[in-house]
Design a protein that fits this description.
Blueprint (H helix, E strand, L loop, with lengths): L1 E4 L15 E8 L3 E4 L3 E7 L6 E5 L2 E5 L3 E5 L4 E6 L3 E8 L3 H4 L11 E2 L7 H12 L5 H16 L13 H11 L7 H7 L4 H11 L4 H16 L7 H7 L5 H12 L3 H12 L1
Antiparallel strand pairs: 1-2, 2-9, 3-8, 4-7, 4-9, 5-6, 5-8, 7-10
Helix pairs in contact: 2-3, 7-9
């Protein structure tokens, strides 16, 4: 069990509502009967399966799959794990300072089921990575922003974001995972497109083919990383999706007309 309070640590950005606390509870079995006086966001899952009984406003629901839950001030919830579950949560004391008069999108039990490819999971992973490390004003400011991001893609999401077309969703995925090994036909099927439809729609939206787009994004990332002298060429190769440093060097020379080492030396010369 880990619960960390953040409300006494100063922030780098003034005027932004700070997190009060966050926690990660493993194998939780204790029931909770609470009238909330704050905004409480939770992500709850179980391994290998979950059964969670929820009661509110005289109604009862058995939840059997991972979900996000949002509780607001004045709301009364009873939550009883029938099987051990894991809960990640965070708390804001003054939710009215977060989104103004904007109301969350949720049902009677305050639940939201994020899609498998939702950015929520990336935000949560980044939050938990910082959560387990040392605290500082900069770290706490990042945690505030990540908590806001999780809220904005779940309960306070932009309605227009729910109307993205398959090609828009797929393009967004590619531009966020360009350092991964991408299988375009498999990705097209994942987003509900035939490969021929994907290629046609991509061509209508972009001047470069998808493979060339990935190469340019990787090259831009590599050039930026080469400015950091603390990283070796081998480390940069792996970070940009090339485990083989020789293949990375050939790729970089083709894109830039020089080797990674020559590029780094030129950058250092320009700084002098």
């Amino acid at each position: 069990m880990a619960i960390i309070f953040y409300d006494t640590i100063p922030r780098l950005i003034r005027g932004m509502e700070p997190l009060n606390r966050a926690g990660f509870l493993e194998q939780k079995t204790i029931s909770v009967d609470r009238v909330y006086d704050h905004l409480a966001f939770s992500y709850i899952d179980g391994a290998p399966k979950m059964e969670l009984l929820m009661r509110t406003r005289g109604r009862e629901l058995l939840v059997t799959r991972p979900h996000c839950r949002l509780c607001l001030p004045g709301e009364h919830f009873i939550t009883a794990p029938l099987l051990p579950c894991n809960e990640f949560y965070f708390v804001f004391t003054h939710p009215e300072r977060l989104f103004g008069d904007r109301l969350p999108q949720r049902g009677d039990f305050g639940l939201f089921y994020p899609a498998e490819n939702s950015p929520f999971f990336s935000y949560m992973a980044m939050f938990l990575k910082l959560f387990n490390g040392p605290l500082s004003p900069g770290i706490c400011t990042q945690l505030d922003c990540l908590a806001m991001a999780m809220l904005s893609v779940t309960f306070y999401r932009d309605q227009s974001a729910d109307r993205f077309s398959p090609i828009e969703e797929m393009e967004g995925y590619i531009r966020n995972h360009y350092c991964d090994e991408l299988d375009f036909p498999a990705l097209a099927r994942r987003f509900g497109l035939s490969f021929s439809t994907f290629r046609r729609q991509w061509k209508e939206r972009n001047s470069d083919p998808p493979g060339e787009t990935v190469l340019k994004l990787r090259n831009r990332h590599a050039c930026d990383l080469l400015r950091n002298r603390q990283l070796s060429i081998g480390e940069i190769a792996e970070l940009t999706g090339y485990p083989d440093i020789r293949y990375f060097s050939r790729f970089f020379r083709r894109m830039n007309g020089m080797t990674p080492s020559e590029f780094r030396s030129r950058m250092l010369q320009e700084k002098k």
